[in-house]
Amino acid sequence: MKIKTIMGGICGSDINLIRLHDSPSTSPFASFPFVIGHENLGIIVEKGENVKEFNIGDRVIADPVLSCSARDINPLCDNCQKGNFSQCRNFTKGSISPGFMIGSCKDTGGSWGEYYVAHKSQLFKVPEKVKNENAILVDAFCSALHPVIRNFPKDSDKVLVVGAGSIGINVVSSLRALGSKARIIVLARYKYQGEFAKHYGASEVIYSKGLSKKELYKKVADEVGGEMLQPILGKPILVGGADVVFECVGTDDSIDDALRFTNMGGKLVMVGLVGETKKVDWTPLWFKELKVFGTNSSAEEEFNGEKKRCYQIALELMEKGLDLSPLLTHTFPLRDYKKAIEMNFKRSKYGMVKSAFKFEEPQI
What we know:
This protein is α/β, with parallel strands linked by helices.
């Protein structure tokens, strides 16, 4: 189906791409030239004659992942059959060019353009009660909802969220939206990030900006009940730590810290986009016997006794009152793309959490 863009979100992964910070290992899963933009919201303006589930004029979001169904591959691969669409085996095969998602495939377009196309299997109608500024944040929310559901803490657990950008805040909002009563400690650099984290349910915020490593580790140790020890050289280490750590930054330093902050036998969930690392000390991985989990996009999950796509779960939560729209701190017309990219390079300077391009809505 052809979709007229209403809003195209600006993801951290888009900015990484522009900065050439991505690993070349993902290049086989793209086809050139492509239009950037996978966070999307639009209105259907054309559809195939056999499509009965959607109508011209429907306001929709597309799960951007281009898995088997979108590629006309039948039977589905084993991962797609299980609902693990981001683990599809066929991102380079089928009826369209290689591409992990819209925004990296030359045949589909992306949401930084006026139009993009999507298969009916990717689409979800946006409920009337869910406003545009909330709906455009579904993709970012699902990038947190997916790992949260698959690594859901016990209410007695101490949870540490490393990073309070969009994804870190959405980890907090996902945990609380799903009913978690765990103690959630968030590491933030800036006050505006911490205020958002508290608004969405953080129990405590530790501000790292201006702290030495020893001061930071002492604060974390006090909050999670660990003991800080100082090696002969280098960073401190914790005996004990948080039971579940969600790493939401993806830098060498944040990963190194997260490993040290995790309790013996605990879980470290890598939510931040990690590419090539230069210096991470992985000693805590084996010394503490940690469980480390990766995450990519979203999938089908167990929710209220049913198997549902993350996008559907997110829209249902929004329809019931979850409002993430305050996180959309900046919008831009596409003509201001240079300004938008520059401001995304310096988010903290502008108090930016999430941003998006805003297009003129079509009259259907």
